[in-house]
Design goal:
Low-confidence stretches: none
Helix content: 40-55%
CATH topology of the largest domain: 2-enoyl-CoA Hydratase, Chain A, domain 1
Order of helices and strands: EEHEEHEEHEEHHEHEHHHH
Number of strands: 10
Distance between the termini: 26 Å
Length: 260
């Protein structure tokens, strides 16, 4: 598939999606959000992709925010629809993918950029990363899940302060807060993400998908996460991956998971 604003490349079971609008600091416009949806969907349904890495092109930004020029004159109804559609086709979509998604955060991850990173299953940052949700400085609030995911990741008080001050934190502060899992030099960012992805890819893709579903259930108010875990645990017993994993363990060899 051909894209105007992103690049997608698969190698050794890892699909890397790069937001490629460096002149706009990789800001998210409507077209980019739709292209990202299509790229994530294609990677998730690929029989060979086991892990997805998403990053931004250039050295300055992962995603510096949303493209404000697209919605500056929106009405109340148009604003609500913008948030609802964006959450549906990209941010919630990414969070609920069965394929693990790692955000490789290089440079600025602001507004919609941080919201995209938070929708990923976890985050790795370069040492020049700056993260924040500055929306209130524009007279609006985060609309792509930021008010929900940031408190889940760093706690209510810290999230309140970061959102209300419209401030930014650096990579080390983000690591201290638990917003990112690792901080590394910029030239080591993708290699480190790939190293983690390779470790993940050695395991059962079916079991990982079940784990993602069970973990996410803990953050859905209308769902009992323990029940989801019980169901997903039971479902694993009916998979070929379970048969291979337990057989390999008993035979003291490495498992070769078929992925079903």
């Amino acid at each position: 598939m051909t894209y105007n604003n992103i690049l997608a490349d698969e190698n050794n079971g890892i699909t890397t999606i790069t937001i490629n609008r460096p002149s706009k600091l990789n800001a998210l416009n409507k077209e980019t959000i739709e292209e990202l949806h299509n790229a994530f969907d294609a990677a998730n349904t690929s029989k060979t992709t086991k892990v997805i890495i998403v990053t931004g092109s250039g050295e300055k930004a992962f995603v510096a925010g949303a493209d404000i020029s697209e919605f500056a004159n929106f009405s109340v109804e148009e604003g609500a629809k913008l948030a609802a559609k964006g959450q549906e086709i990209l941010f919630n979509f990414v969070e609920n993918l069965s394929t693990p998604v790692i955000a490789a955060v290089n440079g600025f991850a602001l507004g919609g950029g941080l919201e995209l990173a938070m929708a990923c299953h976890f985050r790795v940052a370069s040492d020049n990363a700056k993260l924040g949700l500055p929306e209130v400085s524009l007279g609006v609030i985060p609309g792509y899940g930021g008010t929900q995911r940031l408190p889940q990741l760093i706690g209510k008080g810290r999230a309140m302060e970061l959102i209300m001050t419209a401030g930014m934190i650096d990579a080390n502060q983000a690591l201290n807060y638990g917003l990112v899992n690792h901080v590394t030099a910029q030239d080591e960012l993708i290699p480190l993400c790939e190293k983690i992805a390779i470790k993940i890819s050695r395991n059962s893709t079916v079991a990982i998908g079940s784990a993602i579903k069970a973990i996410n259930a803990n953050y859905k108010t209308s769902v009992n996460g323990y029940d989801v875990e019980i169901n997903e645990f039971g479902n694993c017993f009916g998979t070929e991956d379970f048969k291979e994993g337990t057989t390999a363990f008993l035979q003291k060899r490495k498992a070769d998971f078929p992925g079903n």
